[in-house]
Amino acid sequence: MFSKFIFREKNTCPLSPHTMETTDAPQIIEHIHESVTFTPYETRWVPCSAKMCVLGIYPKGTGVLKICELQKGKLATVAEKESKVGFKCGTFGHSSLDNRSIATGDFNGNVQIWDLERLDVPTFSAKGHDQIINCIDGCGGLSIGSGAPELVTGSRDGCVRVWDPRVQEPVVSLEPGEGSDGARDCWTVCFGNSYNDDERVVCAGYDNGDVKMFDLRTNTMRWETNVGNGVTGMEFDRKDIEMNKLCVTTLESKFRIYDVRTQHAEDGFAFMVSSFSFFF
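The structure assignment produced for this chain is given below.
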């Protein structure tokens, strides 16, 4: 089951046919409610369109890539692809606005790119990881940022890998060090600092609260810390500018906003911690 939600800063809510209440609190208004026969893990809007891609897995273990379109207030299925393995994550971040192809990671560790006009076979496919790919992000596409189009994937095997869709092998592979106490499950990855053709960083968050920032230009670990709880999401405020703010969300419903413009040699980046909740 999935829904499309509209987020509004200010909303007038009817309490009865004769009373109205205005609130300045953020509101999430359900626009469309649709039941599905599979477990959806990722929903991505197709850039510059009224379509969305829904990725998930059927109860029998096969995967589904479903393309839906908003049509006169309803959600219509445009195309659907069933695969042998369930899909876990997807992104359009690497793709041009002309092609608008989606990159996916699945439960068997495969990285694939799909042409939405032809879903019979992927245009790119590689065995990316030994275990499930939890997260994927793209950069260099959608006319956002500089540099070549690339993908980054994070997996339960503890590895973070950067991919150039023009070649079958990862261009960078960040793996657990020898003698470490087992591989940590990587839950989230993101690109940032892509403001020219040379600069680009990758951030990764793990189940034990580790946050790592890797500089792709210098091929070095730029910064790492631990936030004390599993990292569920990370995002830079913008990918196509010099690093400014990095948001890190964790399991205990808190988020940290890091000021990544200035890095202290010992203390790292300054940050603030806040919590959030949603009411429906």
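Interim note for the steering committee: DSSP finds no helices and 24 strands in the chain. The two ends are 16 Å apart (CA to CA).
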